[in-house]
Write a structure and sequence with these properties.
Blueprint lengths: L2 H28 L3 H27 L12 H4 L12 H26 L7 H27 L11 H5 L1
Bound molecules: fe (ii) ion (FE2) (2 copies).
């Protein structure tokens, strides 16, 4: 994979991460539960870190960061970041997991391709692997929220039971 192709791929991830920031901030504002709202705000800030590190990779490769619109649209079937009414937390988290899983899958595919030129792209591979792990952690947290009502294993939030019923 040459630099030009890699910049194209990275711009897709850059757009995804930027969309994720907007999406999670919108969710954070929409949910009532304070703990989940704070958690989503924190996830948004981690996604912002991803957008920043991918932006640096693109610039480092001599490319220009560009936003491709609506990268999540084909996955969710609706525009992200536009939450008009009070969301159902559990189904929102399930959709979030779908988007995170797609990101993990795409990160892994790119990592696999770059592993063939390991010496050349060592730093890129490392950054993408860390981002992938973060996406997995997000999914785990989202999943735990969907399961909390049936199987509460730690006191996630005093308000959570009320929200999920
Ligand atoms: Fe991310
Ligand atoms: Fe994520």
């Amino acid at each position: 994979m040459d630099e030009k192709d890699l910049v194209l791929r990275l711009n897709w991830f850059f757009s995804l991460e930027i969309t994720q920031v907007e999406n999670y901030l919108a969710q954070s504002r929409a949910v009532k539960d304070e703990y989940i709202s704070k958690g989503l705000e924190r996830v948004a800030s981690i996604e912002e870190g991803h957008a920043d590190n991918i932006r640096s990779l693109i610039i480092g490769l001599g490319g220009k960061p560009k936003i491709i619109s609506d990268v999540i649209f084909p996955i969710l079937g609706s525009a992200a970041g536009k939450i008009l009414s009070l969301p159902n937390v559990s189904s929102m988290m399930k959709k979030n997991i779908m988007v995170e899983a797609k990101a993990v899958q795409d990160y892994q595919e790119l990592i696999n391709k770059l592993e063939k030129h390991k010496e050349k792209y060592l730093h890129v591979i490392q950054t993408l692997k860390y981002n992938l792990i973060d996406e997995d952690l997000h999914s785990s947290w989202f999943y735990q929220i969907t399961q909390h009502h049936n199987n509460p294993c730690w006191p996630l939030s005093p308000q959570l039971n009320k929200i999920l019923t």
